[in-house]
Fold each of these.
Amino acid sequence: MTAEAAELLEILWGRASTAPVSASQLRVLFILEHDEGINLRTLADALGSTPPSTSRLCDRLQAVGFVERAPGATSRRELRLFLSPQGRTFLTELRSRREHAVETVLAQMPPAGRAALVEGLAAFCAAAAAQLHEGGTTDVRSA
């Protein structure tokens, strides 16, 4: 049931998305939103990727205006990564479209089913957050 729900959510979100970015690039945007000013190596670690691959992701995001790079405070060689105002607007609009898609489905559910879903999702979020914090993973909530 969980896999089916996740797949259906992906489909709903996919329909709501007019994203000019890939799933990996979207994950970069979410990470930068929550951990602004991180360097490339830290971002690569959070993605489970290599710095060269992560740099290429950031190159593409910078080209569309969603990411900005700034020199590090302690080293000129280090670049800090920031979500641009355009990137923030993109995430806000994406979340709004996703929420609308999910709200349309929720409106078709009976009230008792919606209440049970909210209770279950709250427990899921608490357990997932605890697991992420125990593992030392960056908190990357996406919407």
Amino acid sequence: MTVVVLLAVAAGLVFAHRLYRTVEIFLSGAVLSVISSYGVHVVPDRQTVYFGLGSDTPLGLRMTPECTSAFLVLPLVVVGAVMIALRPRIQSRVLFALGVAALAVVVVNQFRVLTLVGLVDWLGVDTGYYWGHTLLGSMVSVFGGAAALVAFVWLATRK
């Protein structure tokens, strides 16, 4: 039964990715509202958060399918389903590991958004967006995703 539920979650991440991105951008907006001294506005229909409102560097950031954490969580869910199907007795470890790794990927993606926002605020829109999205943002995603994968494997397979 758990394998079927995990595969349904995986399908949901693919077919309902727009809803997932909307939730993720709401989370970004909430975090930015807490730490920003400027205005923040979320437009759920466009999966967009506008930040820096009232500052010299306002910017809208759209959560595209390539920028969401859903497609980093998806392989973890599928691998977790396969692991449970092959060895049902490790179900609780795999589910715990999956929860930790999925949470880590979401947190890393939020940190990536915060990195981008901070660099736009510090370096301006053109330079800050380039460094925050293309370079540092990608590095944060790669290292964070790798750390989540290592944590998943370690937690799921340890005795």
